[in-house]
Amino acid sequence: MIVLGIETSCDETAAAVYDGKRLLANVINTQEIHKRYGGVVPELASREHLSFIVPLVEEAFNKAGVGWDQIDGIAVTRGPGLVGSLLIGISFAKAAAFARNIPIIGVNHIEGHLWAPVFEYPELKSPFIGLIISGGHTQLWLVHDFGKYTLLGQTFDDAVGEAFDKAAKMLGMGYPGGPVIDKLSRSGNPEYHHFPRPALKNNNYNFSYSGLKTAVLYFLNSLHPDEIESHKADIAASFQKAAVDTLVEKTFRAAHELKVPRIVLGGGVASNSALKIQMTARTESKGIELYIPSSQFCTDNAAMIAYVGYRRLMRSESDGLTFSAEPSFHGLSLS
Q1: Rounded to the nearest 10 degrees, how much is the dihedral formed by the CA atoms of 315, 320, 323, 328?
Q2: Each residue of 212-224: pLDDT tens digit?
């Protein structure tokens, strides 16, 4: 079975072709228009998806060496995400499925991230702890098996990627904040200032980042502009360490307490260099397997959607043409 995957949940338009053994194509267009506004503008995101989805699917077909006649099913992100963006991908996928008379399935974006490492780590097997971290999500999952998941914890307020964006804005840096803070932090001292680690000591697996964001604001307000400028790298590194420490501690606490020997990272923040260093060091010392996909599979992509769709279609699952976008989609099989 050859599956076309489509992803349009936020500001990446993506298409992929997967045949169950090989990823034949994986193309992504990251929308640049939002940089001038310092964040994603939903209406603009929808328009960009509308402009790019057809040429991206054609590019994916060209790279895969296939045409519509060889596509046996379509997998498309159903949610969570921006409703307008989701509807672009879903409408295109439904029209194609109807025209070709092939099955279609709506995929949970989070489930895609949980399984994104399989393209580079085909040996990945369950159970594992999945940490999904991005501008919209900070969640910790126990993956029992494909299709069977337990949500262990999530953020009470800001997602970690959102906190990076806001900290970068306060420091007068660009958008998205994660990459610019990560780059600047490499030349800074992470011990320059101790920012709080909200929710770190709570006896659960939940996260909180609004307090860290506020602490950065108050600290910057206490400094002279010249001091901020001369210590910008130190402040960025100190903020990043606080954000990363919480992610690492909560993840390893879950792995230890639940006796799970594997950890998977997914989402855009999984590309953070400080996080990778800390995670790698801890897993090596604890004898835990660590799976972090490369950047093309950390960011929103259609390969992970095609993979999940393929497995569900192979189980004879299908959503027909009546489903719609669900911006707060919780369609994972929780145990």
Answers
A1: 20
A2: 999 999 999 999 9
pLDDT digits (tens, 9 = 90+) for 20-72: 999 999 999 988 888 887 888 889 999 999 999 999 999 999 999 999 999 99
In terms of Cα–Cα distance, which of 305, 321, 312 is closest to 98? 321
List strand residue ranges (DSSP E) for the chain, in order: 3-7, 12-18, 23-30, 73-79, 104-108, 128-133, 138-145, 148-154, 262-266, 289-291
Structure tokens at 185: 């932090």
Distance between alpha carbon 322 and the CA centroid of its chain, in Å?
27
Note whether residue 319 is domain-resident. no
Nearest by Cα to 171 from 163, 258, 103, 293: 163
Pairing mode, strands 262-266 and 289-291: parallel
Do 142 and 95 lie in one domain? The reply is no
Q: What angle do CA 74, 77, 83 make, to 5 degrees?
A: 135
Q: What six digits make up the tokens of 123?
A: 């040996």
Q: Determine the Cα–Cα distance for residues 290 and 280; give it in Å rounded to an integer.
A: 7
Q: State whether 29 and 107 are in the same domain.
A: yes
Residue in 165, 262, 259, 158 with CA at minimum distance from that of residue 207? 158
Total domain count, the chain: 2
pTM for the model: 0.94
- Provide the token pair at 327: 């911006």
